[in-house]
Amino acid sequence: MEAIEEGDRVLFITQKGRKYLLEVRRGRRFHSSEGYIDLEQVMGMPYGSRIKTNTGSVWVAAYPLIIDQVLNFPRITQIVYPKDLGYIVLMSGIRSGSRVVEGGTGAAVLTTILAYYVAPTGKVYSYDVVEDHLRNAEKQLEKVGLRDFVELKHGDLTKQIEERDIDAVILDIPTPWLAVANAKNALRDGGVLVSLSPTIEQVIETVEALKNEGFADVITVEILMRTLRVKRGMTRPEHLMHAHTAYITTARKAYREGEG
Fold this sequence. Notes:
The protein is of the alpha/beta class. The protein is built from six helices and 15 strands. It has helices spanning 66-70, 82-92, 109-118, 131-143, 180-186, 200-212, and strands at residues 9-13, 19-23, 29-32, 35-38, 49-52, 58-62, 99-103, 123-128, 150-154, 166-171, 187-197, 216-222, 228-229, 236-237, 247-252.
């Protein structure tokens, strides 16, 4: 079983269910409301080991999943949430070797998930109009080892998409309908467009643009997620839930006779 080494990023899950993603270093101590741990204490232990804080709280030192890592990125913009990320990956059809155009990069959460799935032979071309977003994305991608699979581009998809024969175009921009024609030109026949929008007015504009451009299988969904508090005799939904985050519209580029 893989052992924890100095420099590893470890997900600590506390007895009360809190999660902390920490880099293991000698001489470093982490304090919390459940006590503290000396991080060098876990060096040499296998992932999944249990450790105790000075107050006796039992924590698990877990191997971080990609979702654990991206949820710890700085939230310089609104992020795409896990409940939406999974649907986007499935409906876009991306896999290892896929070529994907994304706009915009934002906090790089979606960028990183796309890179994770297209690696090691695919590529994500991520556009943003704000250069600071691209600089932040570069740092986060390097941190998780996925920088090589993303080309970061300063540009506006409503004006131009340089790539061609793309498998999927994913739009998380304020006016996605203005990028539909460019996305159509960039996509291969049968390629998928995915658009995320917070308001229904944006969805209407986008769906009309997709239909005008001849896209097929146009679908819009909203995904709601509610966790349960499970305890024998007292199981019930949690009072708080992840409700509206975005409307997600998907469509497929259809070949029209006379178009090439």
